[in-house]
Amino acid sequence: MLIFLARIVDQSIGILRILFATKGFKYLALLAGFFESIVWLLAISQIMKHLDNVYCYIAFAGGFAIGNFTGIYIEQRLSIGNVIVRVVFQKDSKLTILLLKRLKFRITIVDAMGMENPVKMIFATIRRNDLKRFLRILNKNNPNAFYTVEDVRMVKEGYFEKTNRLFSSNK
Question: Which of 4, 40, 42, 140 has the smallest number of Cβ neighbours within 10 A?
Answer without folding.
Answer: 140
